[in-house]
Amino acid sequence: MAKKTQTKLSPWDIVQIARHAERPNIADYIRLLCEDFVELHGDRLFGDDRGLIGGFATIGGEKVVLIGHRKGRGVEENIEANFGMASPEGYRKAMRLMRLAEKYGLPVVSFVDTPGAYPGSEAEARGQAEAIAHNLEFMSTLKTPIVVVVCGEGGSGGALGIAVGDRVLMLQNAVYSVISPEGCASILWRDGTKAALAAETLKITADSLKGLGIIDEIVPEPEGGAHTDREAAVAAVKKAVLANLAALKKLPLDKLVEQRYAKFSAMGRF
Amino acid sequence: MSWFEKPAEAPVRVPTEAIWAVCPSCKAYITKEAWRAADKVCPRCNHHDRLSCRERVATLTDAGSFKELNAEVSFNDPLKFTDSSGSYADKAKATVAKTGVGESVLTGTATIEKIPVVLGVMDFKFLGGSLGSGTGERILLAAEQAVALKRPLIIVSASGGARMHEGIVSLMQMAKTCAAIARVKEAGLPYLSILTDPTTGGVSASYAMVGDLNIAEPKALIGFAGRRVIEQTIKQKLPDDFQTAEYTLAHGFVDHIVPRKEMKAFVAKVLRYAGF
Question: CA nearest B204 in A: which residue?
Answer without folding.
Answer: A129
